[in-house]
Amino acid sequence: MYHNHRAKYSVLKAALTLLTVGVICNASAKEGMWLPPTLKNKAEDMKNSGLKIPVDKIYNTNGTGLNNAVVLFGKGCTGEVISAKGLVLTNHHCGYGTVQGLSSLKNDYFAQGFFAKNIAEEIPCPGLTVSFIRRMENVTDKILGGIKDNISEIEREKIIATRIAALAKGYKTTTGLDADIKPYYGGNQYWVSLMETFRDIRLVGFPPNGIGQFGGDTDNWMWPRHTGDFSMFRIYAGKGNKPADYAKTNTAYRSTQFLTINAGGYKEGDFTMVYGFPGQTQQYITGAQVSQIETIVNPIRVSVRGKKLDVLTKNMDQSRDVFLKYTSKRASIANGWKKWQGEMRGVKQNDVLTTKRTYEAEFDKWASKNPTMPGGSGLLSSLQMTVNSSNDLVKADEYIKEAVLGVELISQGVVLEKMLNAFRKSGTPDKLQEELQKIAKSTDGFYKNYDAHTDKEVFEALMPMYISNNMGYIPEDYMDMKNQAGSYSKWADNVFKRSMLADPADLNKFAATTNFKDSARILSDPAYKLYTTISWYKENSLKPRLGKASNDLKTMNRNYMKSMMLKEGTDNFYPDANLTLRLAYGKIRGIDPDGPAGYSYQTNLDEVIKKDNPKVEEFAVPVYLKTLHKEKNYGRWAVNGTVPVAFIADNHTSGGNSGSPVLNAKGELIGTNFDRIWEGTMSDIDFDPRVCRNISLDVRYTLFVVEKFGNAKWLLDEMRIVKN
Asked: Is 658 a catalytic residue?
């Protein structure tokens, strides 16, 4: 069995021991994102690593497990319940979009922060949800039973979709819980997560950007880190402590399970766990797929988003109104932009392609002696050919997603598509107008955070990138429109001056005064033309070819995964992340990426103050925080004359783990996960124990900010805090 020089299982996570990893990392790095119901298989290893509680306290179905204190926050983050009154802790950046919707020039929570003085001041958050995982079950037999291997991928997916819908309906009827059924191990297994989702969530605490986003894009994905990346919300319930839509009569959710907070600190080498919802990893893909990501997909994303960020940053710096409209969107764009740069760098520096190909050569030798394996002995060569043949199509599709549909006005063309459908379906003028006004009203949230001038500059920056990089994969109408305009600037002028989508007043006026003859105006709208032209091109030119390649790859990847598990054994295989509940474990472990330094595994408030620069918004420390520091007004959160801020460990995390509780050996909260270091962002593809580190906010800094900066000690009074 092949071992690389870092002594991983093998690049494809075969069932190898980690003995040689210990030579380098003192047996601390534990790759893997484990399904909670399977933790009994890891119990001995976790105990040897330092765990001091039974694994059935981490997850069980009788209501006493820590799984009942960990929530899926919104659509892609994690949170943890930290009081008996449904108080939820998560990241600042996880609450950012919600708070943007609550903010205005008058109530600028990004500049001022927000801490409720009492429960009556907590602010409702429309559309925000949190979900508990009450139970997880392996339902592979129910989903895959009797499905033959030789049917097409399309037929297979139809059967699976039908079975999932029926099974989910059954679970809802028998348990009252929502059933989230997803594939694991490349579709070789299916598990259900039975979820209870609460819909009345209210904002409790949100530090200003000078704390919660300190360091901004400059420090994002970097270590050392000094960001107070937290926010607090509360779950509200209706009758019987059950989920309910927002109502003034709802009361704080009564939590039977919530995390104990340990403010006693930690030391390097201490056992830690990260419990949460990692979003997506690709640990088991082939070298050809890695190459496609790192030479085509990621470079396109980085270059296009870089241009877009330049435009957004310039306009946000010039106008606070534009800043408030785009700060959440910009943060999301920048997050991926910087992460993918680190990923490309890591893949290259760690020579991941060579490692993958070395394993694949060994796999081929095994396959030649086992011709009856899933997919046959030529599986890898077929997979590589399929990937390589799709490269140009992937390139075109990526430019469409990032550059063309990165222009918000073009993406909004879907609104006019809905209106056109209303013309076709509405039977009377009154019915038509009612439907059009309903559609127009649905765009209020979009236009609250939209600036046409900024978007026009984005158009001028991104459209040349699409046109110049996709010769042979561009709709003829696009070239005609561009050529008729003469220049990209004039093209943008024409689109933004003539489209009713550029101004919500024009859109609302059209919806309120139109008649059946006015559908022609939609058909002639330049933004609608751009949207429908590119949508038609994707659907009819790219999708059939990309779809075939994608379906072929699904079959081959599933067979590859199954064959690897046959070849290596299954004990140490963990499924790729898919935004379902997982546990990772490791130890607090420092790293000095630029050489010897004094910040090996922990940062503190003194360092925050040293980085203060009032002239640069990213590094502008709030005045009151500087006052607290000057007066050494730290209260019970002082450690060696300062306050700890952040720490790093070698837990295996991914996007979606933002806001995850970081637990000590007794299952107590010591921090909140919020990032990874730049050197290790390739861990979504390849986990390297030497450089992969997760960054967490020390819970003592959270409590210090809440109590001293936010003057919200009443929140601490409802928590269970120990110090040992």
From this structure: yes
